[in-house]
Amino acid sequence: MALTNPKIQKEDNSLDQTLRPQSFQEYIGQENVKNNLKILIQAAQERSEPIEHILFYGPPGLGKTTLAHLIARELRAQIKVTSGPAIERVGDLASILTNLSPGDILFIDEAHRLNKLIEEILYPALESRSLDIVIGKGPSARTIQLELPPFTLIAATTRIALLSSPLRSRFSGGTYRLEYYSFAEIESIIERSAKLLGIEIEKEAVGEIAKRSRFTPRVSNRLLKRCRDFAQVEKSDRITAQFALQALDLMRIDPMGLESTDRMILNTLISKFGGGPVGLSTLAAATSEERETIEEVYEPYLMQLGFLERTSRGRLATNKAFEHLKHKAPVEAQSKLV
Ligand code: ADE
Q: 30-177 has which fold?
């Protein structure tokens, strides 16, 4: 599971730089979020104030980081990028915050992984721009309060339920949920990316890649790049439908965008547990995958396709999943299916 895993991977970085939209106009999809952000930006600019703190959430690969960069660009503000797990100690956060210049944007990715102690320092920094730090230990310890420059926090998370409610309530500029892209939007993104990569692509090839992109731009761009490699090796500067299909077949990605691990999870659920319901831990043990990976990486898309349901009694494969994998739904399982 590398190609269709929407989480960031090493090779994405250089790719993202080339393909990342440079303006809201270039950014395809997420219309409602974009419209809200434009108003927020214009209003703040008219008041000559930094915009209020913003939270983005939703599945990986849908453009949370890109939007943060676009906001910074639009405001001509500097953006400092960090992530929840990178801020290990209170001192790390203090150093980031005290080094901000007025109007800067601080982007914290994976905000659900901030440790609680750090979160608590962050609250007053967000609310009243003051940083309370304790210096020394024991009876001689004292608290000093530093005033911070006006700044905007943009936080992003794939797991909003894991953010503490005091933190969630501090995003007065809004909390925005990014949605999966439509098929047509993914097609437009592939066409735009192909142009930027300097390769021609047949409309039919665009459709074949789009079908397997999990409604996620990061995945479509990655698959496009693989197809480009394939065409190049075939000495062609055009991705034909035939090249695309051959390349995608080589990657073992089926027409619904499932990779071997997705199919293995569904097959395990179906053949070992009669389609479920089965608890997440049991499913994780039976597939040798981690609970978290199943929950964050595989399940969102399987649910999106209507192949899997999360129920109070566990995970359930739907009729659609049985059909897709060409299993006959057992009679007793059918009654449990939706
Ligand atoms: N590349 C990645 N995401 C994109 C988007 N939303 N619009 C245009 N190009 C993109």
A: Rossmann fold (3.40.50)
Which pLDDT value is given to residue 22? 93
What pLDDT band is residue 69 in, cutting at 50, 70 and 90? very high
Residues belonging to the active site? 64-65, 109, 158, 218
Ligand 1, closest atom to CA 218? 2
Contact 41, 75 (CB under 8 A): yes
Q: Whose CA is nearest to atom 1 of ligand 1?
A: 20
Fold of the CATH domain 183-250: Helicase, Ruva Protein; domain 3 (1.10.8)
C-alpha 67 – ligand 1 centre gap (Å):
10
- The span from the CA of 2 to the CA of 281, in Å, is 23
Domain boundaries, the chain: 30-177, 183-250, 260-336
Asked if residue 37 has its Cβ within 6 Å of ligand 1, the reply is no
**Which residue has the CA at smallest separation from atom 3 of ligand 1?**
217
- Tell me: domain 260-336, CATH 3.40.50.2300, correct? no
Residue 192 neighbours by CB under 8 Å, 6+ apart: 19, 26, 28
pTM of the prediction?
0.87
pLDDT tens readout for residues 77-88: 999 999 999 999
Token output for 338: 């939706």
Question: How many CB atoms within 10 Å of residue 54?
Answer: 25
